[in-house]
Amino acid sequence: MSDDGNNTPEPGNGSHRKPLPEDSMPKGGVNAPVPVAAEVIPAVDPRLIVRQEGVKGYLGEFRRRISSGELGSLPVVLALVVIWAVFGSLNSSFLSAQNLSNLSQQIVGTGMIAIGVVFVLLLGEIDLSVGSVSGLCAAIFAVLNVTHGVNEWAALLAAIAGGALVGLVHGFFFAKIGVPAFVVTLAGNLAWNGLMLQVLGANGTVNLSGHDIVSRLYTTIYGQTIAAYGLAAFAVLFFLGAALIDTRRRREAGVPYRPVSDIALRTAVLAVLAFLAAYTLNQYKGLPLALLIFLIFIVVLDFVLRRTGYGRQIFALGGNIEGARRAGINISWIRISVFMICSTMAAVGGLFLAAQIQSASQTSGGGNLLMNAIAAAVIGGTSLFGGRGSTWSALLGALVIGSIQSGMNIQGLSNAIQFMITGAVLLAAVVIDSLSRRTQRAAGRA
């Protein structure tokens, strides 16, 4: 090849090629270097850009989420703030340590049932039998322990097992036979209520001794100051440790992770809320054991939903059943197990409600319990359309409903007004959920 600088091509090396048009020549003439293909730039996770921009990035991301309908828990948190502000201004005793401490105990029974409802709602289904199931399981415990003298732990396990068995029956007819969940659980609502009356017998009411395991779980309060503050400190440290471990694993895997500043901010917010709650509880009697158990159920089952393959299958099935089927998910098993979880949590909630009134009677599981449990899950942020929700929804929703009832009782208002306001709040939650989904579809995020 010639090296005299005139770029004369050698024969056999493309010398007969047709010269390029002048307008296709690279700038600078024939002697200019030929441009090469641009280097492929790897895609950047938008969350990294948000975090790198600091506060400005998070504010922009917050505005984007709101405009696209991703509201999360914001509506229920704002509703809770408004409810507390209104009732606190009407009567100062509403925000007293005594009332808030009592409220934290009173929401446990309904909240436990609402946790189970969350699981069913994540599938886009409904369970109308949770009220009757809670009453039936409370009756099983009371009759076995009080009437027949069965060991309290054995009676407790029998009651919880009874709830799981009921869920198995519901799930079988729904998943295997194909009967709609609405019909199955509506029939169950009647059948289990009748079985509860049969279990209670002619007397109709069985009073708890007050010293049994169920009563102790509800009434025990740890009066030591260190109990509430210790729980708050443990929650903050646990959250911080889990966040740092998750960040380290993500960094090592080369996937997006939260920066230390983000973790520090979240930990600080949690610390303020946790220690404020601990301070409030210590101003009255201390930390209720029932509240502690409620929080443990929320955290453990939230971990199941968010951090396990089983939980991801529940979300997948609720979001797109056909996609879940093609992905190889055992749909029948997921459906049956979810209804078993729902009825088991109804049993646990029913036991706490029985301990609250110290008896199991013909009215157990009746009244507005079913509506309150479903409303708590929906108001707390769980979608009726499936695929979106959290066990924390049960806590937030139960707080909203419990706060409304407590505030109304302090003001001396009738049950009729309570029902109307609770219904209006439930309708508002469903409307917000529907509008949110519509906005997300319009933004291409649903």
UniProtKB/TrEMBL annotation:
Annotated keywords: Cell inner membrane, Cell membrane, Membrane, Sugar transport, Transmembrane, Transmembrane helix, Transport
InterPro entries cross-referenced by the UniProt entry: ABC_transp_permease
Subcellular location field: Cell membrane
Transmembrane segments: 71-91, 103-123, 130-147, 153-174, 181-201, 221-242, 263-281, 287-305, 333-357, 369-385, 392-410, 416-435
Pfam (any one): BPD_transp_2
Polar residues composition bias: residue spans: 1-10
Keyword Membrane recorded: yes
CDD domains per UniProt: TM_PBP1_transp_AraH_like
Protein's membrane topology: Multi-pass membrane protein
GO molecular-function terms, A-Z: transmembrane transporter activity
GO cellular component, one term: plasma membrane
Region (Disordered) location: 1-28
Entry function: Part of the binding-protein-dependent transport system for D-xylose. Probably responsible for the translocation of the substrate across the membrane.
Name this protein carries in UniProt: Xylose transport system permease protein XylH
Protein species of origin: Kitasatospora gansuensis
